[in-house]
């Protein structure tokens, strides 16, 4: 295997792949296994390049949550990516398929934070107390790799395959909702593709923020997507996607 180029060069390759809608070979295949530190450095270089181009980070998305053990304690770990102001879409908006490579859509809860969250002692109770409100949301994921990120480190480098975020208009206090029991369904062109409840996210959507806050400080005003409730589904031009969230209403997009 050849040696790994620097993080800025790899980040620029990901940005170019997205701009050209042309996937590239996974870094772990091309250069050998990435360390978590290298993958995080690529993501950081990607964000720096985006900020220099005038974009702003407004939140984070949580990828897959996995349970593991650290010493004698059970822990939740999750990959994540940045949400930029330029990737936010309004409920009911049009999503141009021509801007994407191999898009899939997920129905997710979105938390708006009123207070900072950080540190190893964070619990679900801390998350709920720090939350200004919760709304229905979508994440459109779109790997810049061919065919997709084969390792967690590739996914980290690719900003968790994040492409766009869509948020519903109804923001409710977390205390007014039973988020673990809240039913969610996702429809494409009127056909139900996936269903689930908030308990599908490590038992409660707040646990996604617990896992994230323990590895990455979260700031007041950020919007956090919790990960998929009901699966990830391919979308293409002509699709109308609707997700219904019990207690939170619905959110939709039209793919054009």
Structural notes for this entry:
The protein has 256 residues and is α+β, with helices and mostly antiparallel strands. The chain has a single domain (57-255), classed as Fumarylacetoacetate hydrolase, domain 2, CATH 3.90.850.10. Helices cover 22% and strands 35% of the residues. It is built from 6 helices and 13 strands. Strands 1, 2, 3, 5, 6, 7, 10 and 11 form an 8-stranded mixed sheet that branches. Strands 4-13-12-8-9 form a 5-stranded mixed sheet, with no helix packed on it. It is globular, with a radius of gyration of 18 Å. The model is unreliable at 69-75 (pLDDT under 50).
CATH topology: Fumarylacetoacetate hydrolase, domain 2
Please tell me the overall pLDDT: 92
The N- to C-terminal Cα distance equals 41 Å
Shape: globular
CATH architectural name: Alpha-Beta Complex
Q: Write down the secondary-structure element order.
A: HHHEEEEEHEHEEEHEEEE
Question: Percent of residues in beta strands?
Answer: 35-45%
Count of structural domains:
1
Total number of beta strands = 13
Radius of gyration: 18 Å
**Helix-strand category:** alpha+beta
Largest sheet: 8 strands, mixed
Q: Which parts are unreliable, with pLDDT below 50 for 5 consecutive residues or more?
A: 69-75
CATH class category name: Alpha Beta
* CATH homologous superfamily title: Fumarylacetoacetase-like, C-terminal domain
Helical content, roughly? 10-25%
Q: Helix count? A: 6
Give the topology.
Blueprint: H1 7-20, H2 27-31, H3 36-52, E1 57-70, E2 73-84, E3 88-90, E4 94-95, E5 104-113, H4 124-129, E6 131-141, H5 152-157, E7 162-167, E8 183-188, E9 191-197, H6 206-213, E10 223-225, E11 232-234, E12 240-245, E13 249-255
Parallel strand pairs: 1-10, 3-7, 4-13
Antiparallel strand pairs: 1-2, 5-6, 5-10, 5-11, 6-7, 8-9, 8-12, 12-13
Helix pairs in contact: 1-3
